[in-house]
């Protein structure tokens, strides 16, 4: 579904990514692990079209998205990619349901459609009684679930998560991991997750190891289980 082809990226003299190639299948849950500074976040941002590489391509179902101009790329991103970050980045002045509906409203959905989809997801994620609360009134785990709901509101092809459980305690961390697998089972979502959490990585279909801007190893966990 996603093909990363010969991606390189430098910041000044620092080569952050060197000739990265990677294929991600539909409904796959892939983790990216490696030491700090390995280039994991940069790779995720390029897959997510938030950053452009110096060279190389990212193809979504065969479409070379890096050839799109900024405005069309932003539209593509809004429709097709959901993001979950370590610090959830919910807007503090809006309620949970408004935060979740926001990407749909930005994408041009009607208010009715956006809020209906947002409420459906909030219910699925067990946040129904928090829908009209502001983020500050939520626990860390609830905020992160709200961020997941927001990432899903436009039914994206892929959800990209950067240290999604980094700010959570071990209970909420397990719950968030379980949620990703439930979403894949129920809705077929694809996840690419940058994580330092070895127990999360150990559950994913494939573990991509990175170091110094290179993919050093890909461990196919399905083969191990099968
Ligand atoms: P990781 O996620 O594996 O820790 P990053 O992709 O965040 O790695 O960063 C890789 C390297 O690139 C680091 O040395 C980081 O400081 C540098 N870097 C990342 N983004 C930028 C940027 N926008 N400008 C300059 N350097 C950057
Ligand atoms: P991570 O915890 O995943 O390694 P960082 O905290 O290194 O991520 O980076 C967070 C954000 O800051 C990223 O968007 C990255 O591109 C940016 N960034 C990282 N290092 C630098 C840097 N040296 N200069 C500018 N931006 C940077």
Automatic annotation (TrEMBL):
Q: Name one Pfam family in it.
A: ABC_tran
What SUPFAM superfamilies does UniProt report for this protein, alphabetically? P-loop containing nucleoside triphosphate hydrolases
A cellular component annotation (GO) from this entry:
membrane protein complex
What keywords were assigned to this record? ATP-binding, Nucleotide-binding, Transport
The cross-references to PROSITE patterns, in alphabetical order and at most eight, read:
ABC_TRANSPORTER_1 (PS00211), ABC_TRANSPORTER_2 (PS50893)
The highest taxon in the source lineage is Bacteria
Q: Does the keyword Signal apply?
A: no
Residue ranges of domain ABC transporter in the record: 2-226
Please list every transmembrane segment annotated in the UniProt record, as residue ranges: none
One annotated GO molecular function: ATP hydrolysis activity
Q: Which CDD domains does this UniProt record tie to the protein?
A: ABC_MJ0796_LolCDE_FtsE
Give the similarity note.
Belongs to the ABC transporter superfamily. Macrolide exporter (TC 3.A.1.122) family.
Would you tell me the protein name for this molecule? ABC transporter ATP-binding protein
